[in-house]
Amino acid sequence: MKSVIIIGGGPTGLMAAEQLTNAGFVVDLYDAMPTLGRKFLLAGIGGLNITHSEPFAAFCSRYAERQTELQPLLATFGADALRAWCAELGVETFVGTSGRVFPKEMKAAPLLRAWLARLKRNGLRIHPRHRWMGWDAQGQLVFETPAGNVTSPNLPVILALGGGSWKKLGSDGAWVPLLEACNTPIAPLKPANCGFLCAWSEHLRSRFAGAPLKSVSLSFTDLTGYTETRKGEMIVTERGVEGSLIYAFSARLRDSLDLHGSATFYLDLLPNHDHAHIAAALQTKPANKTLGNFLKSRFKLDGVKTALLFETLDKAHWQNIPLLASTLKAIPLTVTATTPIDEAISTAGGVPFAALDNNLMLRQLPGVFCAGEMLDWEAPTGGYLLTACFASGREVGEGVIRWLAR
After folding, report:
1. Residue 231: other Cβ atoms inside 10 A
2. Burial degree of 352 (CB within 10 A; 0-12, 13-18, 19+)
3. Terminal C-alpha separation, the chain
4. Which residues are in the RsdA/BaiN/AoA(So)-like insert domain (predicted)?
5. Most buried among 149, 332, 364, 369, by the most CB within 10 A?
6. CB count, 10 Å around CB of 118?
7. Would you give the DSSP letter of residue 54?
8. Backbone Cα Rg of the chain
9. Rounded-to-integer distance, Cα 167 and Cα 368, Å
10. Which residues contact 260 (CB under 8 A, 6 or more apart)?
11. Reduced to 3 states, what is the DSSP secondary structure of residue 312?
């Protein structure tokens, strides 16, 4: 009976294990952590957004430069197939108002428990607390364990080691120098779906750190000259900004930062009101009412939005109604750096698709396969990250089967 090793116990590695155990292979799965799926479980704390219900073409476009490589995988195992797979495990899913798909229980733990139970029934052998350290002089896989180093024959091995964020959950990018030492090209790991740093005033930092910015619209022009405007929510942090609206633009903001050292986007604090309406309303402000109180009563502008306005527009210009209305519609916010990579939800960079064959096997290392977030792709939050990890895990499992059959 043929044997395969998988290193990495997240959704990608587990999905690869499912394909292989279903095909009758003996599979040993190694993971550095005491338990499997730790980052997956963390993603489910606020409600596991497992995929998205939007049409397939729009769904695939979320992968930007890597759409060509990922679309065939998603055609085989996309959002609908993933929901059907959840149902097989007894986990019902539903579509939220934003089009995002969640388990009915809104948690990752029931899904992971049911999945692991099924994999173990199929014969999956799990080896926790085994950190992969590379290969020894004889070409055997080396694992660091609490009892000392152990080795394993270099059977066909699937690397599903994640990216470089959330080290405490196992994704630390320690695999990068191991593969580079084997002449495998690696695109540098960068933060994706991350926060950004801004030069806030002490007043804004001390009074409004952690405050949500709801019902705002963000506009940004990327390096290609394309301007996108999107409505959503974000958070003002002590150091800058983060949240779902920021994550939707994070790749483009990061790329502009890399080239220019800073990036500026514009925030519409009143996206439901046009300039003319705002200007007309401002004309009616009573002389004895402060601007902050007027904006709060007339437009329900909360404290953090007002603070951003006052951070941008000097008091000397508050009587300039056209300028004031324009600023409310386009607060310029300049970001100067990303937050550290270990704080990012995911990472960009990794093993280029050009370094892999059609089975997701490394061209430089026959018998070594890669999948999941350690490949060079990225996607926004909204279920796209998880779906591609599942899809690539399924594909790499099938790729090993094809390679061994050949």
Report:
1. 12
2. middle
3. 16
4. 190-346
5. 369
6. 16
7. S
8. 24
9. 23
10. none
11. helix
| pLDDT score, position 169 | 84
Per the CB < 8 A criterion, the answer to whether 94 and 48 are in contact is no
How far is Cα 42 from Cα 108, in angstroms, rounded to an integer? 8
Query: DSSP code of 289?
Result: S
Strands 3-7 and 157-159: parallel
Task: Give the pLDDT of residue 241.
Answer: 97
Smallest CA-to-CA distance from 119 within 95, 164, 88, 74 is with: 88
* Residue 144: how many other CB atoms lie within 10 Å: 14
Closest CA to 161 of 9, 347, 367: 9
pLDDT over 70 at 319, yes or no: yes
Residue 217: name the closest of 306, 327, 311, 329 by CA: 329
Does 17 have pLDDT greater than 90? yes
Cα separations in angstroms, 110 against 12, 33, 90: 18, 19, 9
Instruction: Give residue 11's pLDDT.
Output: 96
The stretches of 6-150 forming alpha helices (DSSP H) are: 11-22, 38-43, 56-61, 67-76, 79-88, 109-121
One-letter amino acid for residue 266 of the chain? Y
> Which residue in the block uniquely carries the two structure tokens 């200007």?
279
